[in-house]
Amino acid sequence: MSSTSHAEDLAHGHEHDHDHDHGHAHHPRGFMRWLTTTNHKDIGTLYLSFSFTMFLVGGILALGIRAELFKPGLQLWHPEFFNQLTSMHGLIMVFGAIMPGFVGFANWLVPMQVGAPDMAFARLNNWSFWLLPPAAILLVGSFFVPGGAVAAGWTIYAPLTLQMGPGMDLAIFALHILGASSIMGSINIIVTILNMRAPGMTLMKMPLFVWTWLITAYLLIAVMPVLAGAITMTLTDRHFGTSFFNAAGGGDPVLFQHVFWFFGHPEVYIMILPGFGIISAVIPAFARKPLFGYSSMVYATASIAILSFIVWAHHMFTVGMPAAGILFFMYATVLIAVPTGVKVFNWIATMWRGSMTFETPMLFAVGFIFVFTMGGFTGLILAIAPIDFQAQDTYYVVAHFHYVLVAGSLFSMFAGVYYWLPKWTGHMYNETLGKWHFWLSMIFFNVTFFPMHFLGLAGMPRRVPDYNLQFADWNMVASIGAFGFGLSQLIFLACVLKCIKGGPKATAQVWEGAQGLEWTLPSPPPYHSFEVPPQVK
Amino acid sequence: MRSPLGNAQRFAVRDGAGRVRSTRRRGRLPGTLLGAGGLAAAATALAQSRYNLQPPASAVAQEIYDLHTTMLWICTVIFVAVFGTMFYAIWKHRKSVGHVPAQFHESTTVEIAWTLVPLVILIGMAIPATRVLLQIKDTSNPDITIKATGYQWKWGYDYLSGEGQGISLLSAMSTPRDQIDRYDGTGAPQGEHYLLEVDNAITVPVGKKVRILTTAEDVIHSWWLPAFGVKQDAIPGFVRDTWFRADREGVFRGQCAELCGKEHGFMPIVVNVVSAQQYTAWVGEQLKKTSSTAAEADKVWSKPDLLARGEKVYGSVCAACHQPTGQGIPNAFPPLEGSKVVLGPSAEQVKLVLAGRKGVFTPNSQMPSQAMLSDADIAAAITYTRNAWSNKDKAAADMVQPAEVKALRQ
Description:
Number of strands of chain A: 0
Largest sheet of chain A: none
Number of helices of chain A: 18
Order of helices and strands of chain A: HHHHHHHHHHHHHHHHHH
Distance between the termini of chain A: 25 Å
Helix content of chain B: 40-55%
Mean pLDDT of chain A: 94
Oligomer: heterodimer
């Protein structure tokens, strides 16, 4: 049956003027189409576009930070504005770039991968996305209110937050909206996965990406309300006379940290588990070999998620917990290395004795394993509490989390985009551009963040706009790397835009070793796919 | 101000990394030769990038250093094993060299193996870590107890027990702002201890157990001395503790380690570790100063004295926000030049400085209270603002005595 190509819709908006399949009512074109769409493919595209836009905004803030830190002394920003840059860089990247990016993948892929025609709650899906742009406007707009944006770090500890101007309140409202969007999206994903799988697709036959999103969605529902609690308590302490975090009123500043990190630690697993799912799709495809240890991978992902609830205070080793508390959290934290290691070994075992080719998705996937594991090692080192006493709040921590979030989450998303873009658009992307993007990103990423391990160990604290001369060399290197990394992302933008517009036609299979229901559909898939569920053997 | 350490400093010998090694007893020929070579090396040490934790100056810091080295080795071995395997596969198991894919995809044995072996390795890591953690947490039986209070943005120290009891110090960064501010492209040359120097360092005797109590007046700060392996958050309304025992003399520097507002990067910590005799001498000096600070509040100051002192205090405390020019920063920090408060009744300005104030421009930002400063310092700074810039000859009362400040404290 004929269908309007989704990719052409993407590129040419309102040029086509004929009915869609099934003689349904004429779909809106142009802006209204995007505003009112309930189609999981459209909504996936919206999420991914939003995510990349926020990534560029957050990236510009990062360049502002690294420009100031290029040399000792204050050259560009007053310290209070510098603190706004660091705080907003974190908030925008976490809540605006990484999380919506993974939701974009979920929207595009989960229905197709389970053989469903769309998400369970299609209109809720639209609402989940369209909450995001207003939230982003509130958040980014906070730069322009008196006092500027929140300047208390992305972790917004009390009681420093009680000193912030109205930018803090805007951030709180934005976070509430972002949280609501995440919760709604997660409900959608869980119900879709549990209720709408094609006949024959048992849970243990689902692609691992679907498993990782099923588990991530439960994590989101569990912890976003906790963040909402923490920021609401901050709001009432600021404006309504409560003293949750004010000792003089009977409260405790450390309470904020406990509540925040009870959200915050599962949050970082929320930001990586879908990435694990993407890598678990890409590696078998390009090794032309099934994923090694599928059940172990499922159990490992679930273990990581469960363990993620009992480790939060490793972000708080220096608050003054009794030794027993510190020891508990130290032991629980190092335990997470076990299932994470299992996953890394399983990926390598998938590669082992495969027949590998190294197109861009595979380059990013292999690069991910290499660099994410390094981040995992520094995480393990930080888990050792006595070492953490030295490294807490230093550039060592900054290095660690950028290794797992950039080389981890972001690279896994790049792998996913290059892997699925031909399916989504019907065109092959330009492999040369992709490879340039990969190599430049890998090199500049390491130039930027590897020296930060040295800086942290040597004694440079984080969230400072200036530093002693002993730290100058590595800061200069890191700043150069940062600008290189930032500019390299423009290659990605060019590559994606070029691919959307056109390119060599993609087959349904696209990649020789790709497995899964989505590869049985044409490239691009019809606007409505699997309206008749496939039979899964 | 620098504590008088007698002759010891002149004999201080620096090793190749610029660390001060212990001195007087070993000040003979080898020491002198070492010193000469050390001085030359110290110059290059400044230019060295550092890769690792700072050289430990306490047993705990040494334990942490060794723990980290162990962890690094274990991670390196695992890294080489795992990625050696991966890169071997990338090299040999490629389609382009004709490798045909195998189809195996599970093995329970292997899964159990690579679950249990890492678990055993982790237990191996946890045992020494536990031992060191318990050492760090044992703050019992200190020789000296010092309370460190975090302020926005300086540290206050009170010697609570042991030799030195009764000493109180405020310790603020002493790096001049003209070394820091380079917005117009120029600035004064930055010194060796740029951002890591203070007006009053605390002094402790070598080899004695020093317990540090931490608290804060406003927001969370954190007291961090890398050379001693010590970091403890300073939380308003609560008192936490940590301890160190310095195993050699020297000057050790740290920084605040919890974001506490705009000057978070500018509130360093400096600890002077000296011999027992030097410490006793220092204690004597300090106790005299503490009582003379109290006396300062009662005497009547001349205007030139107030202005001289006030210019210093303004530069190190007030200028960070209100700027050396007194112009403030638009929509952030109000100007003092032409300010109604500065030109009006002195009591209002004193009360404002003591109490702090909710934001002029933004409802929740605020000027932190400066009540931790001495009466003389507050009086001098206020006097300075009333006579500086174009405020000169315009203020109603152009001089404030420390006694007036003392009377207005509640």
